[in-house]
Specification:
Layout: E1 2-11, E2 14-24, E3 29-33, H1 40-47, E4 54-59, E5 62-63, E6 72-76, H2 87-97, H3 103-113, H4 126-139, E7 144-148, H5 156-169, E8 175-179, H6 183-186, E9 192-197, E10 200-206, H7 207-212, H8 217-224, H9 231-240
Helix pairs in contact: 3-4
Length: 244
Amino acid sequence: MIRIEELKKSYGGKEALKGVSLQLPRGEIVGLFGENGAGKSTLMKCILGFLPYTGDITLDGEKITRKNIAKISFATSEHSFFGNLTAEGHRDFYKEHFPDFSDKRFMALMDFFELPMSKPVKSFSTGQKNQFEVILALCQGADYILMDEPFAGNDIFNREDFYKVLLGILTERETVLLSTHLIEEVSDFIGRAVLIRGGEIVGDVYTSQLEDEGKDLITYIKETYHYRADRVSRALDELCDGEV
């Protein structure tokens, strides 16, 4: 389990995370939702140790260090790989450094996305680069897979098919934390939704609970965020006031 307690992070005196506490048990697919600047990426980067913070983050009861960081993988649209290496070169590198790397899963996903093995990754399109980063994260052999807007630049058909493939390949020990704005697309894919706003957790619910209450995920998020349905009409009225 990843346990986060009273996590705080500031940039230039401005709080990005305000005492966030969260638990991520094994075997869950968790959606992390929030507005731009809500703290989603900051939360993930603190878990990975990319940013200094105050508070406590533990992995299976231990601090996250070089000894256990391989249990966590990360996929983002920032392309954290070696551009001059081919996909085959990345596979060899990961196999050497991650003993639990799944070559079988890697080849199956490369085939699924129809990505070339022998071309430098820098020659891939933006969508292909994002697909490749997701592949590496899923094949590393990590127990906790963090994904921060991983599907940018991918068409809806690739995304929908990938959700189905992902559900089919994940094991009971693997946990996915997925940050995305594509809420409707992933509503049937995730089992739990965590909502963050202004650096604070404002909602945490299992989708099965929402089903029992007769709610969908979008409705829950709008209610939690106190979304004003009239905000568009009010803005248009103000902008068009006095115009012919």
